[in-house]
Every structure is written in C-alpha cells, then in structure tokens.
Amino acid sequence: MEPEPPGEGGGEGEAEPGEEGLIEFYGSFKEMFEFFCKNTTIHGTVRLVCSGRNRAKTAFWTLLLLASLAMLYWQFALMFSQFWAYPVVLTMSVDSEPKMFPAVTVCNLDPYRFEPISEQLEQLEHMAEESLTFLYGPTASARLSHRRDRDKDRDRNKERDNDKDRDRDKDKAIPVQPQANLSSNFRLSQNFSLVRMWEPGAGRKHSRVGFRLCNSTGGDCFYSSHASGTAALQEWFRFHFINLLAQLPPALARHPRRFQDLVYSCQYDGEPCRPSDYVPFHHPVFGSCYTFNSKGTDPFWRATKPGIPYGLSLILRAEQQEHIPLLSTVAGVKVMIHSHNQTPFLEHEGFHIRPGIATTIGIRQDQVNRLGGNYGKCTTDGADVAVELLYNSSYTLQACLHSCFQRAMLRHCGCGYVYYPLPAGARYCDYRRQPAWGNWYWYYCYYCYH
C-alpha cells in the first residue's frame, strides 16, 4: 500500500468542503453591512439592502434613518443637559396687601381642682401614692406627697392674697349653679390597679407597668402597659380623672379664670388689647385658655407691616396655683397659632413655651389648594362629608376625626369621651354607669395609633 499524500485523507481539524467554519470573516464591508441590515431589529434598515435596484428608494430610506438617529441623539443631549443643570421649579408671588392676623390660643397649663370633685381628687392622689409605694418603694411616694403638700401650702397663701380681688370681681364672674359635693354619689373604683407585668423570658430587668381594662363580662381584657412607670402612672391617673370630670356639669367644667390671672400685658400693633379681642375657655388638661382674634373679622387685627413691634405682644403669668402633678407635668404656657373660626386642638398642633424667657415667634402663611378630581376626593367646608361636626366652628380634619370618634363612642358605649363635645341628650362616660367603656376606648386607640 502506498502512503497517502499529505493533505488527503480528511485528518482532524480540517473542514470539509461546504461545511461552516467556527469563525468566518466577511469578504467585504458590503457583505457585513447587508448581514447587519437583514438581521437587526432596527426598523427601516432592511429597506437599505432590499431596495438596492431603486436608488431613489434607497436614498429616501437612508435619509430617513439618518434623520431618526440624529433626533435620537438630540433627545439624549437635551436630557443629559437638563439633568446636569439641576433645575428647580419655583413659583413665587409677593403679596403686599394687608393680611388678617391669625388666631392665637394661649393656655396656662394649670387645670382646675374643681370644688365638687376635690375630695375624690385627693383620694386619687392618695391612690397614686399607694401605687408608687407598691411599685417602687416608699421613697417615690414620699416625694410625690411632699410636692403635693408644698403645693397646697402655696395655694393657701395665694388664696389669702387674692381674697380681695375675688370679692371685687364677683359681679363679673359667670353665674354657675351651686353643686353638691359628689362624695356620696361617686366612688373611685379599685378595680383598675397598677401592676407590674414581667415579659416572658426577659428577666426581672425588663418589665412593664400598666393596668387592665375588661369588657362588661370581665373578659376580653386589654392591658394598657408602658415600659416607663411614670408614663403608666400618668395614664392611670388620667383615666380616673376623666371619670371624675364626667360628674361635672358642662357650665362648670368650661368656666375659665380671670384674664388678668394669665395675661399681665397684651398689645397688638402698639395698642392695648380690648375685652372683645379674646374668647376664654377651659381645657381639662391645659387649664385656662384664651383665643385672640378667633373670628378674624375685626379690622383692628389687620396686619399692615411686618416685624415684632407690629405683632401681638404678650407678657404672661406662668403660675401653677392648683397644680396637679400627675396630670400636667409641664410648666409654662401652651400656644397654638391657627386659622380663624377654628377649634384649637392643642394636643395635636400646640407647642410649649417655658417660663422665665422671652420668646419670639415668626409667622409665615402657606396656602395649599387641593386639586381634587382625579387626584383625590377633597372638601372645602365639610358639607359633603358624611360626618356631622360636633364643634361650632369651621371644618378641619381634626374636628372631623374627633366628631367621628365621639359618635362611635356613643354607638358602642352609650356615652361620650369627656374631652370632646356631646350631641344633645348624650352623657359622658364614667365607670360607675358604664364599667366597660375604658376597654373599648383604649382598645380602639391602641389599634388606631399603633
């Protein structure tokens, strides 16, 4: 046998005629361009090779493709130039017309010790001392007792100093029907004691303090507990205090102190304030309150110039004559700036000013116009809202929420929350008539706000 000549016999690594190689190179740029145009997903490129016999058609598609690419890169250039310029869209308007000064509410953070419930309030403070002794030993309760006795001595001294002023102002006081002491009718309940609750597996250093609220059958109990013993004691005290306030007639519960007891000096635009410039009311927690320019219709309160000398200037007496330490833990005044004919919800939008300092508050008005329509359901005066307001003021979100909550309380408990207004014929809740109202209230508030 003769050996096969080199290159014959189909050795390994050699491609047979007609087979496609692993890597192929185009013979010309034209072949590569035709392959790209026929296989790419860019619209219109296939027309460049399919219409090769018609030069006019090829030229048209070439110009159209180049124009499209030019517009594409032009849009890229615009977007990048706008991005790197960091544009800010701002619309400003300067209004030099006189504006009506906003309403201002000021409270003295000194709630009343009402005479009809004074005996029960002292019993409640003794119960608080016993709870502190049980939880933290006699040292903590001794501090509270010493502070309470000191406040009583101070109140007696001030009472003697103010006897002449009170006799002089008897004719100006709001007439209130005398009420009998409620000691024979209402008793503080011992069923809501403060207890220490140990967390499972957390050890003795990780415990919570709270009290238990159950339904009318004694089941479905809800524990109002706090990691802080001070917060738990204040919550427990306020719960009992709410039940005491429910015993007061509405006229007595909303009777404020004299204007001079809080406001030493009042001026607006350099002119002294008049009795018609403020509306008094009493808040169960924040004490005696006064709202200046509540209606916003008096031309006296029209602001014509900016600056401190042309605004409202107040010198306030931050005294706590009837201090209830577990109810009001802040000294000074509570302030809220709000719109006219609006109920001031100080617990949500108010701020504190501590005593002994001069405070300047600047005001800037921001007006927001809701678009409504496709952007959401909006209301202007609350007329199209299903909830009927219990407040004799204009519509606000907080007024709507409080009115809705109060009506829910009336449906579920048959009574109302003492901090909110009542519709005609309704009564406030207390655990003598409605023993389980606290269970529903705290359970509802927990799942709404947590």
UniProtKB/TrEMBL annotation:
It is a multi-pass membrane protein. GO terms for molecular function: ligand-gated sodium channel activity. Gene3D superfamilies: Acid-sensing ion channels like domains. InterPro entries: ENaC, ENaC_chordates, ENaC_CS. It is found in: Cell membrane. Its main location: membrane. Keywords: Cell membrane, Ion channel, Ion transport, Membrane, Sodium, Sodium channel, Sodium transport, Transmembrane, Transmembrane helix, Transport. Residues 148-173 have a biased composition (Basic and acidic residues). Residues 143-180 are annotated as: Disordered. The chain crosses the membrane at residues 63-86. It catalyses: Na(+)(in) = Na(+)(out). GO terms for cellular component: plasma membrane; sodium channel complex. Pfam families: ASC. It comes from the Eukaryota. NCBIfam families: ENaC. This is Uncharacterized protein. It comes from Chloebia gouldiae.
